[in-house]
Amino acid sequence: MRKRADQVAQTRERIVEAAVHLHGTVGPAATTVAGIAAVAGVTRLTVYRHFPDEEAIFAACSAHWLSRRVPPNPSAWAQVADPAERLRVGLTDLYQFYRDGREMLTHVYRDMAVLPDTHRRTLEDRQELFHTLLAEPFPADQRIRAVIGHAISFWTWRSLCLDNGLSNAEAVELMSALADLGR
């Protein structure tokens, strides 16, 4: 019995790792159950025995990928009262997460429209939380909110750091200065 349970767990782990690999290389939109099965070395039926639908696969893939990362810590940002300092702390944390997960995040954000609804909403809700926490100590001004919304975007980070060669620190400094102009 123990050996069988270990084999089942190992098979499940291979399937999840295959999904993580494919989501991080071709993206969720191009990942198929057949592709996951091929990479994991199992049949499509075996994938479905472990995961009844794409939402279950995506949930397991996300949990596995996130378990190997240091996620942003918005509760730590909320402890910083000074608006400019909170923004710097939050962006530093967020940009490090983006850099560490850039391959996967590029594909996930690119494929947002095809993600399972619960996962897409979770990502959107998380971005809204980040936006709210970082904008909260600033005066209520649409320009500042717009700058902060732009600054927390993965695509902004990607453009500044990957496409244009800035370091995370330089990008944080630039986005903080832009927010300061709006005050």
TrEMBL record:
It comes from the Bacteria. Residues 32-51 bind DNA. SUPFAM superfamilies: Homeodomain-like. Keywords: DNA-binding, Transcription, Transcription regulation. The keyword Transcription applies. Pfam families: TetR_N. Gene3D superfamilies: Tetracycline Repressor, domain 2. Residues 9-69 form the HTH tetR-type domain. Signal peptide: none annotated. This is TetR/AcrR family transcriptional regulator. InterPro entries: Homeodomain-like_sf, HTH-type_TetR-like_transc_reg, HTH_TetR.
